[in-house]
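Run log, item B.
One chain of 261 residues. Sequence copied directly from the ordering sheet:
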Amino acid sequence: MSSIILFEEKTVRRAWDAENQKWLFAIVDVLAILTGSTNPAVYWRVLKKRLRAEGNQTVTNCNGFKMTSADGKQRLTDVADTEQLFRLIQSVPSPKAEPFKLWLAQVGYERLEEIENPELAARRMRQIYEQKGYSEEWIEKRLRGIAVRDELTDEWKKRGVKESREFAILTAEISKATFGMTPSEYKAFKSLSNPGENLRDHMTDLELIFTMLGEASTTEIAKKQDTQGFHQNKKAATAGGAIAGNARRELETARRMARTS
């Protein structure tokens, strides 16, 4: 699970490491906040070289993880967990170091709370959408859509589908069959130029419903056919999306007929 969070209105990419039960944060995003650098990747390369020369183990333990970059593509990014970031922050002179440490500790604490009580995650998400001005009806559909999506990805994991790239391909297959566009094409259609923007946060109620129908149908087909591996699940994704696509086209036809009658 990957997401974007905010520190003083600046974005920090993160991913949840389910195996080790901890958040992983994009180091360049953190350094951009702490240093104000316009090129945090260069700053990180220089800092990494210096820390290695000093024998600092923090750097050698930082792994690469695929995250969405500024151009919208999945790129390998150096990440660090909370403990590693605390140690790394000590090597960066910055007036924002202490506020960032407090924020980082709060992020980790909230995640632990959510693991113990999953309802908290939904409650916090609801509050965020309410603050953004979404209607109660839309929020209900959005939260339900997240649950449907989680059920689908859990099913994919059980059936040998690899996370990240294969998940993205299967999601694109469902979207193409449902709306006639991949998610990236749909974002362009909606004029969403920021790669960090979530397409589903910009969907209408009906778009959310059709998205849920496509993903729920894919889950049911995968279960019924006992699909295994990427290729079988790709066929299931196309079939599941087609169910939603047919429903969408039928509704559009009904609307056109109602306007002309």
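Observations after the first pass:
- The chain has a mean pLDDT of 85.
- Residues 2-116 form one domain.
Flagged for discussion on Thursday.
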